[in-house]
């Protein structure tokens, strides 16, 4: 910006040339050229002095002063027993902006603002900088640490000088000097890497041991009950062992509204066994899949009436063929595997490119690490941030094994027992659970990819499968008591694709463009209204030729239920949930419109999480209102989920870096390691969030185990 300063001194450290064994010490001739643009003669003084404190020592702080006209650099030699060191530089003043560079012992030394980036590794700095250096990268086992003060501050987040709007040749009588302190400390040894890896894997393998113990205890209890001859129709984990007589007549008290259950529900549901195949005869007929995939041809005439009853029971919404519905939900599993492969491969390729650029150029301003706790391994600059994501993958795989065990036990029970035992408990469809396990594993993979080089451009990789996890959990919670009318895999994943597309647009346009936030807020509010109408009527109305029919129907509900009748809505519980949900979502939309948060990906994730928590709280409250029980295992999982999430969020909000700021400003937030001298606060967040997600999944898996002995025409829908 051509802003100029008055200064009276220029100093340069001459590149030292040590004699080699082949050449004896000799005198060297130095030429110094001085040029001036002054219109008259100027008197100069040339002073050559010997630097007494040129070599930095390990674990000893060194203080000095630098300015744009007086850059400084010093020599450091690796001690014999040190393979890696961390260079920590601090200053009390934010500005002037400076650059810290580590360069090999080569002359000339690049110690000016316009060439400091030509060699070695460098960082911009305000109050703090840290660079980890390994002995293997310097064959001579020594290097220069270079300090350059920049003539302008905009590279570090300072304001653009006002001189660009006025007189660009104005002279500023400012002192751009900076007091710095540099300390070089040994970094962690190889043994710490090994300890950290053992800790990471053993911590989560303990969950496997705990699961084996719980499964063994459950097996012993089942065997004891079986030997005592008092086993109930289904004793947890989908194990059906004996059946009670079931009649086609409707139980007393189950007919709410003006519907005869014996003709509309019971008669069709309990059709003769000859009309239905055996429980274990799942077929893969493409003809059957096409014709019966998501239809109820035998009751098409009355399902609209059944689903609009004031009081619904699970038997009303689990009337479709179990085999067809199970295949429908298995599509969730196969689709998410396909999505994961096609999404992860280009992400891995991109972050490898990022890391390669960092290693080749030496520009450490590209990636936003916590440089005070970034331990390199191989080509990776922050191996600890990647290793800490192993918990998501290990616990995701463990959850798949737990679901597989339940699935196998349920299949065995259905192959052994009468077809009518299908009318007990929540319908066992495991496709969504398998998809959740894959999503948890992929969250670990993509979070690790993001932490290869965390920055503004690739943060969406860390959040994409978080959206899918939150969405799948909501779908699973809804599917539990609405198995026949839950969204198909194609609709669900298409919705997730729209969300991820909006997240990408938010990264590009969400910073300052008001038009984007107006459009997004409208989409958010209208989408909430449309989904609310679908949920309120259990999906039993047509949108008409245009989608405005959804909102016309919503207006009709408000008129008939509130204005015309002046009484409580027909579906009170659903209405309360939807009113609260819409208020929450509209609040998010208004907040985004007013404040336009720069971290758009986290903003969308907050919307998903709040909706999930709201629905889960509603579900548990309604479950307790319906006099249903919480068994010890789901109760333990709920408590563990709350405790672990609280601890995880504490570490999550310990901000160690921020790509919303400049790299130099982000480094002001860097902190040392807190666990084993290897992991920082964000790594602990990774560990705890993986455990919290695992317990959250177990809550959804076990929440309704108390209903395994209850007939479906006694289980309310909410």
Automatic annotation (TrEMBL):
Topological type in the membrane: Multi-pass membrane protein
TM ranges: 192-220, 332-352, 386-404, 432-453, 459-478, 490-509, 515-537, 575-594, 600-621, 633-653, 684-703
Annotated Low complexity bias: 262-272
Compartments where found: Membrane
UniProt keyword Glycoprotein, yes or no: yes
Native organism: Urocolius indicus (Red-faced mousebird)
A single GO cellular-component term on record: plasma membrane
Origin organism lineage: Eukaryota, Metazoa, Chordata, Craniata, Vertebrata
Keywords noted in UniProt: Glycoprotein, Membrane, Signal, Transmembrane, Transmembrane helix
Region described as Disordered: spans on this chain: 230-294
Name of the protein described by the UniProt record: SIDT1 protein
Pfam families listed in its UniProt record: SID-1_RNA_chan (PF13965)
Biased composition (Polar residues): 239-253
Family: Belongs to the SID1 family.
Biased composition annotated in UniProt, kind: Acidic residues: 285-294
GO molecular function terms noted in the UniProt entry: double-stranded RNA binding; RNA transmembrane transporter activity
Gene: Sidt1
């Amino acid at each position: 910006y051509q802003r100029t300063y008055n200064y009276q001194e220029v100093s340069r450290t001459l590149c030292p040339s040590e004699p080699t064994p082949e050449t004896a010490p000799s005198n060297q001739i130095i030429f110094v050229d001085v040029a001036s643009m002054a219109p008259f003669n100027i008197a100069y003084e040339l002073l050559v002095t010997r630097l007494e404190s040129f070599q930095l020592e390990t674990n000893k702080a060194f203080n000095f002063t630098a300015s744009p006209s007086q850059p400084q650099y010093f020599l450091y030699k690796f001690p014999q027993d040190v393979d890696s060191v961390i260079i920590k530089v601090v200053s009390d003043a934010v500005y002037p902006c400076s650059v810290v560079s580590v360069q090999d012992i080569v002359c000339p030394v690049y110690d000016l603002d316009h060439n400091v980036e030509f060699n070695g590794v460098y960082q911009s700095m305000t109050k703090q900088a840290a660079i980890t250096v390994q002995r293997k990268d310097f064959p001579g086992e020594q290097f220069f640490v270079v300090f350059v003060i920049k003539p302008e501050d905009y590279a570090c987040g300072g304001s653009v000088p006002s001189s660009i709007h006025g007189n660009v040749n104005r002279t500023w009588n400012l002192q751009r000097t900076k007091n710095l302190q540099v300390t070089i400390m040994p970094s962690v040894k190889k043994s710490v890497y090994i300890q950290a890896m053992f800790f990471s894997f053993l911590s989560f393998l303990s969950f496997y041991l705990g699961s084996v113990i719980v499964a063994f205890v459950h097996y012993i209890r089942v065997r004891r009950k079986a030997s005592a001859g008092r086993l109930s129709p289904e004793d947890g984990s989908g194990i059906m062992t004996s059946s009670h007589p079931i009649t086609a007549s409707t139980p007393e008290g189950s007919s709410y509204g003006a519907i005869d259950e014996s003709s509309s529900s019971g008669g069709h549901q309990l059709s003769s066994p000859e009309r239905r195949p055996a429980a274990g005869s799942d077929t893969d007929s493409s003809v059957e899949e096409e014709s019966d995939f998501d239809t109820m041809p035998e009751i098409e005439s009355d399902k609209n009436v059944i689903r609009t009853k004031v009081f619904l029971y699970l038997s009303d919404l689990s009337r479709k063929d179990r085999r067809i519905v199970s295949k429908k939900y298995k599509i969730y599993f196969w689709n998410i595997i396909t999505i994961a492969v096609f999404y992860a491969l280009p992400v891995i390729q991109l972050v490898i490119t990022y890391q390669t650029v960092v290693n080749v150029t030496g520009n450490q301003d590209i990636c936003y690490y916590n440089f005070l706790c970034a331990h390199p391994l191989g080509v990776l600059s922050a191996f600890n941030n990647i290793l800490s994501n192993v918990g998501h993958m290990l616990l995701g795989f463990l959850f798949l094994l737990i679901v597989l065990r339940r699935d196998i036990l349920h299949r065995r029970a259905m192959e052994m027992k009468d077809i009518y035992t299908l009318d007990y408990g929540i319908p066992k469809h495991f496709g969504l659970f398998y998809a959740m396990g894959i999503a948890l594993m992929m969250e670990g993979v993509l979070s690790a990819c993001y932490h290869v080089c965390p920055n503004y451009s690739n943060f969406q990789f860390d959040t994409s499968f978080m959206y899918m996890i939150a969405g799948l959990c909501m779908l699973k919670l809804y599917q539990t008591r609405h198995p026949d009318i839950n969204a198909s895999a194609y609709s669900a994943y298409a919705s997730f694709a729209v969300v991820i597309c909006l997240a990408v647009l938010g990264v590009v346009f969400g910073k300052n463009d008001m038009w984007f936030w107006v459009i997004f807020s409208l989409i958010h509010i209208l989408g909430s209204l449309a989904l609310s109408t679908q949920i309120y009527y259990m999906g039993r109305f047509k949108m008409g030729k245009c989608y405005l029919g959804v909102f016309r129907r919503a207006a009709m509900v408000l008129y008939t239920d509130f204005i015309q009748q002046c009484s409580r809505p027909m579906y009170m519980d659903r209405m309360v949930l939807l009113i609260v949900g819409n208020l929450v979502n509209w609040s998010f939309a208004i907040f985004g419109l007013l404040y336009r948060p720069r971290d758009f990906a986290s903003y969308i994730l907050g919307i998903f999480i709040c909706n999930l928590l709201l629905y889960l709280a509603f579900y548990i409250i309604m479950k307790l209102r319906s006099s249903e029980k919480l068994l010890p295992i789901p109760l333990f999982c709920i408590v563990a989920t709350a405790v672990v999430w609280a601890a995880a969020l504490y570490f999550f909000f310990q901000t160690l870096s921020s790509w919303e700021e400049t790299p130099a400003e982000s480094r002001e937030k860097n902190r040392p390691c807190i666990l084993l001298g290897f992991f920082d606060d964000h790594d602990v967040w990774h560990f705890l969030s993986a455990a919290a997600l695992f317990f959250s999944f177990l809550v959804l898996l076990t929440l309704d185990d108390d209903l395994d002995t209850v007939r479906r025409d006694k289980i309310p829908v909410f």
